Amino acid sequence: MKNIYVILIILIILTGVLFFFGMGKKAEAPVSTSDIMENGVISNNMPTIDTPDTKEALAIKEFVVTGQNFSFEPAMIKVKKGDRVKITFQNTEGFHDFRIDEYGVAAKQAKSPATEVLEFTADQAGSFEYYCSVGTHRSMGMKGTLVVEE
Ligand SMILES: [Cu+2]
């Protein structure tokens, strides 16, 4: 007979605990992160918010290339095939432009100080020269290499 009382008391306590937690959830579950960690139910839903994949797909490789008499800095840029590439060309000295013929990239010829942002998708693998097309600047060393790795 005592067992029935014990079971009843346990049931009453369990009901009380469940009720207490149920109220707690309704009141503050979505608010605090500590609740999310404690509640298996809520934390199980977290993987559905998967932003990392989307962010990676939209990633842009950004570079700042400066041009001066008569060089580019840096003289080499490496990206992976398929990358979206954003090059901010800053002409800091003289009259120059920035070109990559294979990608149809061409900044306007301009006197320093000048800045132009160039964007393209690196969809062909290989090594491509970027250069300044003003006068003989290219042969004077105003060039660099874009490496697109497979
Ligand atoms: Cu130049």
Automatic annotation (TrEMBL):
Pfam families: Cupredoxin_1. GO terms for molecular function: metal ion binding. Residues 55-148 form the EfeO-type cupredoxin-like domain. The keyword RNA-binding does not apply. This is EfeO-type cupredoxin-like domain-containing protein. It comes from the Bacteria. InterPro entries: Cu-binding_ET, Cu_oxidase_CS, Cupredoxin, EfeO_Cupredoxin. PROSITE patterns: MULTICOPPER_OXIDASE1. Coiled coil: none annotated. Keywords: Copper, Membrane, Metal-binding, Transmembrane, Transmembrane helix. The chain crosses the membrane at residues 6-24.
